[in-house]
Amino acid sequence: RKVRMYNCGPTVYDTQHIGNLSMFVFTDTIRKVLEYNNFNVKQIINITDVGHLTSDSDEGEDKMTKGLEREGLEPTLQNMLELGERYAQVFLDNLRDLNINAEKIIFPRASGYIPAQIAMVATLVEKGFAYPAPDGVYFDTARYPAYGALGGIRGESQAEGARIAANKHKRNQADFALWKFNTKLGWDSPWGQGFPGWHIECSAMARAVLG
């Protein structure tokens, strides 16, 4: 009677709006129903304090960098982490205002799991499920035949670039970034300095904290 629950949390480059916060009222309702029915719930809401790009195509401005620029701060890792922690605390206050018991929830920060994320990307590259490109490392969706099945999406049914601008560095336009290069801001990796894609952040944190 144990439930492990992972909920994708905010990118803490700014305050959250009511649309963002409504999701956590929903997940808290699920938690309370489970607990009412005598389940033991271990819940995570991650805090994305690094590397979340603004577009679905893995392109565009990094949200945390955007927050630094908005507040007139130099683009350094230290400033980024301090900015993220400040808005993380605002988010936690928001949850308490919504009668969500934050004391029962684990809030891992993406910045605290960089080695785990790099290791996970390295394993995917080693096994041929990911590939380095000039602008980063991408997951090769063609290597996973079931990709898109959950959403009823098939690769051949989507015209290239129909939803997002085509990226010439990707083998398939559905491929997504596991690591994005950034010469000014980020961490060292076997492929180059940069930061993780949010997909691998959640995978690494869920595995590390929930097993």
Account of the protein in words:
By secondary structure, the protein is an alpha/beta fold. It has helices spanning 18-36, 63-70, 77-97, 114-126, 198-210, and strands at residues 2-7, 40-45, 105-106, 130-133, 136-139, 176-181, 194-196. The strands form 2 sheets. The chain has a 4-stranded antiparallel sheet. The protein has a 3-stranded parallel sheet with strand order 1-2-3, sandwiched between helices. Helix 2 packs across helix 3 and helix 4 packs across helix 5. The longest helix has 21 residues, at 77-97.
Question: Into which percentage range does the β-strand content fall?
Answer: 5-15%
Give me the oligomer status. Answer: single chain
Strand tally is 7
The topology string of helices and strands comes to EHEHHEHEEEEH
Major sheet: arrangement of strands: 4-5-6-7
Report the biggest beta sheet as strand number plus sense, adding barrel if it closes.
4 strands, antiparallel
Residue share in helices?
A: 25-40%
The stretches of 5 or more residues where confidence is low (pLDDT under 50) are none
Tell me the structural class: alpha/beta
**Separation of the first and last Cα atoms:** 16 Å
The global form is globular
For the CA atoms, what is the radius of gyration? 18 Å
Count of separate DSSP helical elements: 5
Mean pLDDT: 89
